[in-house]
Amino acid sequence: MRKTATLIITLLAASVTLTGCGSEKDAGPAKAGKASPSVSASGGAKGSAPGKKGVAHQVVFEVGGTGAGKVMWIGNTNHFEQVTLPWTKTESMRLEGAELKVGVTVSVVPATVKGTDGMLRPAPCTIKVDGKQVADNQGGKSDKYCKYELKD
Fold it and tell me: What is the C-alpha to C-alpha distance for residues 65 and 149, in angstroms, rounded to an integer?
Protein backbone atom coordinates (compact mmCIF):
# COMPACT_ATOMS: atom_id res chain seq x y z
CA MET A 1 0.00 0.00 0.00
CA ARG A 2 2.79 2.41 0.90
CA LYS A 3 4.65 1.55 -2.31
CA THR A 4 1.54 2.30 -4.37
CA ALA A 5 0.88 5.57 -2.54
CA THR A 6 4.55 6.58 -2.87
CA LEU A 7 4.52 5.71 -6.59
CA ILE A 8 1.35 7.72 -7.24
CA ILE A 9 2.62 10.72 -5.27
CA THR A 10 5.98 10.57 -7.08
CA LEU A 11 4.31 10.41 -10.50
CA LEU A 12 1.98 13.28 -9.64
CA ALA A 13 4.87 15.40 -8.36
CA ALA A 14 6.86 14.67 -11.52
CA SER A 15 3.95 15.56 -13.77
CA VAL A 16 3.29 18.82 -11.89
CA THR A 17 6.98 19.68 -12.10
CA LEU A 18 7.16 18.88 -15.82
CA THR A 19 3.95 20.80 -16.52
CA GLY A 20 5.61 23.99 -15.27
CA CYS A 21 8.72 23.47 -17.40
CA GLY A 22 8.95 25.41 -20.61
CA SER A 23 6.76 28.30 -19.52
CA GLU A 24 7.98 31.58 -20.93
CA LYS A 25 5.52 33.69 -18.94
CA ASP A 26 8.37 35.14 -16.86
CA ALA A 27 10.94 35.18 -19.67
CA GLY A 28 13.14 38.23 -19.56
CA PRO A 29 14.20 40.33 -22.53
CA ALA A 30 17.01 37.90 -23.37
CA LYS A 31 14.53 35.08 -24.01
CA ALA A 32 11.75 37.15 -25.52
CA GLY A 33 13.12 37.00 -29.08
CA LYS A 34 14.02 33.31 -29.14
CA ALA A 35 11.68 30.98 -30.98
CA SER A 36 10.89 27.59 -29.51
CA PRO A 37 10.10 24.49 -31.56
CA SER A 38 6.45 23.59 -31.90
CA VAL A 39 5.25 20.44 -30.19
CA SER A 40 3.03 17.84 -31.79
CA ALA A 41 -0.09 16.37 -30.18
CA SER A 42 1.93 13.27 -29.33
CA GLY A 43 4.43 15.31 -27.35
CA GLY A 44 7.41 15.24 -29.72
CA ALA A 45 9.13 18.27 -31.17
CA LYS A 46 8.25 18.86 -34.78
CA GLY A 47 11.11 19.33 -37.16
CA SER A 48 13.24 16.50 -35.75
CA ALA A 49 12.68 14.52 -38.93
CA PRO A 50 10.54 16.67 -41.24
CA GLY A 51 7.71 14.83 -42.96
CA LYS A 52 8.37 11.52 -41.19
CA LYS A 53 5.32 10.01 -39.52
CA GLY A 54 4.66 6.51 -38.33
CA VAL A 55 1.55 4.42 -38.57
CA ALA A 56 -1.45 5.18 -36.35
CA HIS A 57 -1.75 2.95 -33.28
CA GLN A 58 -4.89 2.38 -31.23
CA VAL A 59 -3.90 2.39 -27.54
CA VAL A 60 -6.47 1.15 -25.01
CA PHE A 61 -6.01 1.81 -21.29
CA GLU A 62 -8.16 -0.29 -18.93
CA VAL A 63 -8.60 -0.28 -15.15
CA GLY A 64 -10.81 -2.91 -13.51
CA GLY A 65 -12.62 -2.96 -10.19
CA THR A 66 -15.82 -1.41 -8.88
CA GLY A 67 -16.69 1.94 -7.38
CA ALA A 68 -14.80 5.14 -8.09
CA GLY A 69 -11.17 6.16 -7.97
CA LYS A 70 -8.50 8.40 -9.42
CA VAL A 71 -6.64 7.20 -12.51
CA MET A 72 -3.59 8.73 -14.16
CA TRP A 73 -2.68 7.81 -17.71
CA ILE A 74 -0.14 9.03 -20.21
CA GLY A 75 -0.91 8.67 -23.89
CA ASN A 76 -0.91 11.65 -26.27
CA THR A 77 -0.83 13.87 -23.16
CA ASN A 78 -0.94 13.44 -19.37
CA HIS A 79 -4.31 12.91 -17.69
CA PHE A 80 -5.45 12.54 -14.09
CA GLU A 81 -9.12 12.29 -13.20
CA GLN A 82 -11.76 10.75 -10.97
CA VAL A 83 -13.44 7.84 -12.80
CA THR A 84 -16.05 5.13 -12.27
CA LEU A 85 -14.60 1.62 -12.37
CA PRO A 86 -14.33 -0.40 -14.52
CA TRP A 87 -12.84 2.23 -16.84
CA THR A 88 -11.55 2.19 -20.42
CA LYS A 89 -9.95 4.93 -22.51
CA THR A 90 -8.91 4.64 -26.16
CA GLU A 91 -6.48 6.99 -27.89
CA SER A 92 -5.08 7.02 -31.40
CA MET A 93 -1.35 7.72 -31.42
CA ARG A 94 0.99 8.37 -34.34
CA LEU A 95 4.70 8.67 -33.71
CA GLU A 96 6.63 11.31 -35.60
CA GLY A 97 10.09 12.82 -35.77
CA ALA A 98 12.51 11.54 -33.13
CA GLU A 99 9.72 9.41 -31.58
CA LEU A 100 10.08 7.06 -34.56
CA LYS A 101 13.59 6.23 -33.39
CA VAL A 102 13.26 6.21 -29.59
CA GLY A 103 9.56 5.48 -29.06
CA VAL A 104 7.13 6.89 -26.49
CA THR A 105 6.18 5.50 -23.08
CA VAL A 106 2.46 5.03 -22.47
CA SER A 107 1.25 4.18 -18.97
CA VAL A 108 -1.70 3.98 -16.60
CA VAL A 109 -1.58 4.25 -12.81
CA PRO A 110 -4.71 2.50 -11.56
CA ALA A 111 -7.01 3.57 -8.76
CA THR A 112 -6.78 1.89 -5.37
CA VAL A 113 -9.51 -0.65 -4.56
CA LYS A 114 -10.35 -2.77 -1.54
CA GLY A 115 -9.12 -6.36 -1.91
CA THR A 116 -10.90 -9.50 -0.71
CA ASP A 117 -8.80 -9.31 2.48
CA GLY A 118 -10.05 -5.78 3.16
CA MET A 119 -6.67 -4.21 2.34
CA LEU A 120 -6.30 -1.46 -0.26
CA ARG A 121 -4.40 -2.46 -3.38
CA PRO A 122 -3.99 -1.27 -6.97
CA ALA A 123 -6.90 -2.08 -9.26
CA PRO A 124 -6.14 -4.40 -12.18
CA CYS A 125 -4.82 -2.50 -15.21
CA THR A 126 -3.95 -3.37 -18.81
CA ILE A 127 -2.66 -1.60 -21.90
CA LYS A 128 -3.50 -2.87 -25.37
CA VAL A 129 -1.89 -1.63 -28.58
CA ASP A 130 -3.65 -2.41 -31.85
CA GLY A 131 -5.74 -5.10 -30.11
CA LYS A 132 -2.77 -6.90 -28.48
CA GLN A 133 -2.30 -6.76 -24.69
CA VAL A 134 1.20 -5.41 -24.05
CA ALA A 135 1.16 -4.58 -20.31
CA ASP A 136 -0.67 -5.55 -17.11
CA ASN A 137 -0.19 -5.65 -13.35
CA GLN A 138 -1.20 -9.32 -12.94
CA GLY A 139 -4.81 -8.52 -12.15
CA GLY A 140 -3.84 -6.06 -9.40
CA LYS A 141 -1.54 -8.57 -7.66
CA SER A 142 1.52 -6.48 -8.53
CA ASP A 143 2.02 -3.09 -6.89
CA LYS A 144 3.43 -1.77 -10.17
CA TYR A 145 1.53 0.36 -12.62
CA CYS A 146 1.13 -0.57 -16.30
CA LYS A 147 3.57 0.89 -18.82
CA TYR A 148 4.73 0.12 -22.33
CA GLU A 149 7.30 1.56 -24.74
CA LEU A 150 5.37 2.26 -27.96
CA LYS A 151 7.56 2.02 -31.07
CA ASP A 152 6.88 1.71 -34.79
Answer: 25
Amino acid sitting at position 101: K
pLDDT at 9: 55
d(CA 59, CA 73): 11
Task: Give CA–CA dist 81/101, Å, rounded.
Answer: 31
Q: State whether residue 31 is helix, strand or coil.
A: helix
Amino acid at site 126: T
What is the Cα–Cα distance from 55 to 6, expressed in whole angstroms? 36
The answer, yes or no, to whether residue 54 has pLDDT greater than 70, is: yes
The pTM for the full model equals 0.67
Is-contact 104 127, C-beta < 8 A?
no
Nearest to 55 by CA among 22, 100, 106: 100
58 neighbors 130 (Cβ within 8 angstroms): yes
DSSP string, 85-111: EEEEEEEEEEEETTHHHH-EEEEEEPP
Pairing of the two strands 78-96 and 132-136 = unpaired
Residue with the bigger pLDDT between 52 and 70: it is 70
